[in-house]
Amino acid sequence: MDYPEHQIGFEKMFSTEKQCIEYLMAIRWIDGYTCSKCMSKKYWFTERNRIVCSECGFQTTPIAGTIFEQTNKPLTLWYRAIWWMIAQKNGVSATGLQKILGLGSYTTAWSWLQKLRTLTVNPEREKLSGRIEIDETLVGGRSRGKRGRGAEKKKVVVIAVEVLEKGTGRVRIKIVPRSTSKCLIGFIIDNVEYGSTIFTDGLNSYSKLNENGYLHKVDRAIVKTEYEELLPNVHRVASLLKRWLIGTHQNFVSNERMQYYLDEFVFRYNRRKSKSRGLLFERIIEQAVKHKPIGNDRVFKNKMTLQN
Fold first, then answer.
1. pLDDT, tens digit, for every residue of 93-125?
2. What is the pLDDT of residue 182?
3. Nearest residue to 243 (alpha-carbon basis) of 120, 87, 91
4. Largest CB tally within 10 Å, which of 9, 29, 101, 234?
5. b/e map of 277-299 (b: 16 or more CB within 10 Å)?
6. What is the rounded distance in angstroms from the CA atom of residue 78 to the CA atom of residue 71?
7. d(C-alpha 104, C-alpha 81), whole Å
8. Are the C-beta atoms of 93 and 101 separated by less than 8 Å?
């Protein structure tokens, strides 16, 4: 499958709605469109881009059942939103997306980014393995009110980092309700292969890792001045995450939507060495056609202040 190598290539590939539809269909139906009712491969398009089966007359659209299903905006605009999001090294804010696409509503730009962030998590992704550093940190806390308030609303975030011979590999980051054994070990089971060697601090919540099929390494004699020495890789990732939240999003991230931003950070970090923005674009489109539709009612569930 071809994908754009750069901005000029993107503009040539997706300058019309027809080009965007053909690209989406090629990714969605690798062997060509097949009618879900009669399995026929013969079809034709209406003027409104509806697919009509030539055999049984069943009608559908290229975006039906995808994350784009309920949109009233053209795919050309959606593709540009995706390209702009992945082409920027540090991501993009809703305000920035609104300006670059000329969207009339900040709310539209914000909701689009929330939907696109759900595509950064591949449900079939492989678990971390090998040597893993794990620790918790606090993020968020900004809320309406006087400056400086809201620290008490910070979220507990657990971070797992693959440690390689040189540098780090992939990461996983998730909000947990509390730093309890149930929460932390549950996160590890979901994200780390059994048999991996896990390095943590002396928190008692990790004490049953050996019983759960992991080799647990811990320094219980840790003192405050040595803390950064114990888990340098996970602390480096935590620092990068916080700088990213402050730099790209000015730290105005709703705690209710924090996981979306953490998922985007993980997507970017795990692909930091990728030389092709076009390949990342293709991956997002692949996820978009697999993902079920997300209505705005879901995006705005548990209403929040619209702060990027």
1. 888 999 999 998 899 999 999 899 999 988 889
2. 96
3. 91
4. 234
5. bbebbbbbbebbbbbeebeeeeb
6. 9
7. 14
8. no
Site of tokens 């657990």: 158
Distance CA 13, CA 277 (A): 14
pTM: 0.82
Q: Which two three-digit tokens encode residue 171?
A: 């990461």
Instruction: Check if the beta carbon of residue 250 is closer than 8 Å to that of residue 308.
Output: yes
Q: Where are the domains of the chain?
A: 7-122+289-299, 131-253
Q: Which two tokens stand for residue 163?
A: 């440690």
Alpha helices by DSSP H, listed for 88-178, are: 94-101, 106-118
Picking from 136, 176, 149, the residue whose alpha carbon sits closest to that of residue 258 is 176
Facing residues of 135 across strands? 159
Cβ atoms within 10 Å, residue 256: 14
Instruction: Return the structure tokens found at 22.
Output: 């053909």
pLDDT in tens, 47-92: 889 999 999 999 999 999 999 998 889 999 999 999 999 888 778 8
In 29-161, alpha helices (H): 75-87, 94-101, 106-118
Percent of residues, the chain, with pLDDT higher than 70: 85
What's the rounded Cα separation, in Å, for the pair 174 and 172?
7
> Per residue in 8-32, is it b (16+ CB within 10 Å) or e — as a string?
eebeebbeeeeebbebbbebbeeee
Token pair 């540090």 is found at 90
Q: What are the distances in angstroms from CA 126 to CA 56, 121, 158, 190?
A: 41, 11, 18, 10
CATH class of domain segment(s) 131-253:
alpha beta
Structure tokens at 240: 């990068």
Residues, the chain, total? Answer: 308
